Amino acid sequence: MTRTNTAGADDDGAPAAELFDVERHYPGGVRALDGVSFRIGRGELVGIVGPSGSGKSTLLNLLGMLDTPTGGSVRITGFDTAGLDDDGASALRARSVGFVFQQFHLAHNVAALDNVADGLLYTGAPLRRRRARARGALERVGLGDRLHHRPHELSGGQRQRVAIARAVVGDPGLVLADEPTGALDTASGTAVMELLQELNAAGATVVVITHDRELAGGLPRRIRVRDGQVESDERAGGDGGGHVQG
């Protein structure tokens, strides 16, 4: 039975995300997505790749519950997002989805420790506990010696690591990385991708949204989108599985 109007404990047996025949249309006849179906299992590392206007950003918004589909269904950790009211969607997003953005989105005059700790505000945990978890997340991404540095005191690669620590501090079921290397030089971008791969190897489900075919080519699974549809769904070794029929 589909669960609705609540965002309680996730179903650990459910995929991290499932899309069934999803459509997203906008006024003026714009069909941003047109019959998209795929499943992302727990612990996968997936690239969603395509050119500008292909539907990548729309998929990001749907997976992150920042938007709702016009047709079809989106399920995150077992919950049909269409069946959640606003409070339920906000609670599920806060607990189950971590975001990493190209431009970092860090508070400018706030130390790295509190930038990460703020990712746990929704839990209601006291500041001391939030900071303790934030310290652990920053140590996990190699920034244990930068806890009290503000964003302007960090390199671009270090700022992205802070953003990743904030995304994973609550142990979400799904980490969405939107062009995570787009604002970085090659060396820093490579280091960030290696970090995402390490987090995935430790059990995190990571989805990288990118237009960079070379970057996506290094991932174990690539979902290529064009003109609002899935063009291909490829796995390392040539297995084209992963499609879900709506």
Automatic annotation (TrEMBL):
<keyword id="KW-0547">Nucleotide-binding</keyword>
<dbReference type="Pfam" id="PF00005">
    <property type="entry name" value="ABC_tran"/>
</dbReference>
<keyword id="KW-0067">ATP-binding</keyword>
<feature type="region of interest" description="Disordered">
    <location>
        <begin position="226"/>
        <end position="246"/>
    </location>
</feature>
<feature type="domain" description="ABC transporter">
    <location>
        <begin position="17"/>
        <end position="246"/>
    </location>
</feature>
<dbReference type="InterPro" id="IPR015854">
    <property type="entry name" value="ABC_transpr_LolD-like"/>
</dbReference>
<dbReference type="InterPro" id="IPR027417">
    <property type="entry name" value="P-loop_NTPase"/>
</dbReference>
<keyword id="KW-0813">Transport</keyword>
<dbReference type="InterPro" id="IPR003439">
    <property type="entry name" value="ABC_transporter-like_ATP-bd"/>
</dbReference>
<feature type="compositionally biased region" description="Basic and acidic residues">
    <location>
        <begin position="226"/>
        <end position="237"/>
    </location>
</feature>
<dbReference type="InterPro" id="IPR017871">
    <property type="entry name" value="ABC_transporter-like_CS"/>
</dbReference>
<dbReference type="InterPro" id="IPR003593">
    <property type="entry name" value="AAA+_ATPase"/>
</dbReference>
<dbReference type="InterPro" id="IPR017911">
    <property type="entry name" value="MacB-like_ATP-bd"/>
</dbReference>
<protein>
    <submittedName>
        <fullName>ABC transporter ATP-binding protein</fullName>
    </submittedName>
</protein>
<dbReference type="GO" id="GO:0005524">
    <property type="term" value="F:ATP binding"/>
</dbReference>
